Amino acid sequence: MEIATYKLLEELKSYPTFSVNDLSLLTGQESDYSKIVLHRLSKKGLVYRLKRDSYTVHSDPLLFASSLIWPSYISLWYAFRFHDLTEQIPYRLDVLTPAANRIEQMRFKGYLISFLKITEKILFGYGKNRISDLDVFMAEPEKAIVDAIVLKKISIPEIVYVIDQNNEKLSIDKLIEMMIRTGSKAGAKRLGWILDHLELIRSEELHDRIYQTITPLESSFSPEGKKDPYWRLIVNIKEE
């Protein structure tokens, strides 16, 4: 590798993603020349094109996924793994954003990067983590669980297991506070039942925010099972 190319790639490592204009500002060259450079580096596998006018030199999607659209943050299973709440190795990164985005998902080196639209109201509960000298925006552990319940992207039995196995790491008060902040009455029901079922707390705060219509605990399962009159749910999962 030429010294000039090596130095350029080292400089580009400080960018999670970059554009043709970014490269032109770095090199002092015109955009047409930058496009030629990018084409050559892409052919050699030294630069990856992510979408229109968006490139990276990083082979780990964690380093750039939350920079592909602003504002956004990584949540759900990948956040569970990041915070050591699960031993499962996820091959999907869920990026949550209220911003409009033409791309719903992309594949990158065996990973699926999925962009999930959320409301501004639930754009909270995430932080900036410094990894390899880059800023990665990741849900806090409690918010990742709240997101999973509200967005119905992870099954209730799996969420029950995660909370049960990590209740000493998690702040139950924060789980309740974050769920209330989302304004999700269905989410309040489900989280309330989980915490009650695990004998962690019977939260009156969550109960005060539920609605009276009886609904299934797990929305993707058949709505058959015994009724929980307190949480106004049909418990359609195996209780272990």
- Taking all Cα atoms into account, the compactness measure Rg is 22 Å
Q: Give the integer mean of the pLDDT values.
A: 95
Q: What is the terminal separation in angstroms?
A: 58 Å
Number of helices: 9
Which strands sit side by side, in order, in the main sheet? Answer: 3-4-6-5
Overall tally of structural domains? 3
Structural class: alpha+beta
Q: Please report which band the strand proportion falls in: under 5%, 5-15%, 15-25%, 25-35%, 35-45% or over 45%.
A: 15-25%
Poorly predicted ranges: none
Shape: elongated
Number of strands: 11
Give helix % range: 25-40%
H and E order:
HHHEEEHEEEEEHHHHHEEE
How can the largest sheet be summarized?
4 strands, mixed
Task: Describe it.
This protein is an alpha+beta fold. It folds into three domains: 3-56, Winged helix-like DNA-binding domain superfamily/Winged helix DNA-binding domain (Arc Repressor Mutant, subunit A); 61-142, no CATH class; 153-235, no CATH class. It contains nine helices and eleven strands. The chain has helices at residues 3-12, 20-27, 31-43, 76-82, 141-151, 156-166, 172-182, 185-197, 204-207; strands at 48-51, 54-56, 73-75, 92-97, 105-108, 111-117, 126-131, 134-139, 215-216, 226-228, 233-235. The strands form four sheets. It has a four-stranded mixed sheet. Strands 9-11-10 form a three-stranded mixed sheet, with helices on one face. Strand 7 (126-131) and strand 8 form a beta hairpin. Helix 4 runs antiparallel to helix 5 (141-151), helix 5 packs across helix 7 and helix 7 runs antiparallel to helix 8. The radius of gyration is 22 Å and the shape is elongated. The N and C termini lie far apart (58 Å). The model has no long low-confidence stretch (mean pLDDT 95).
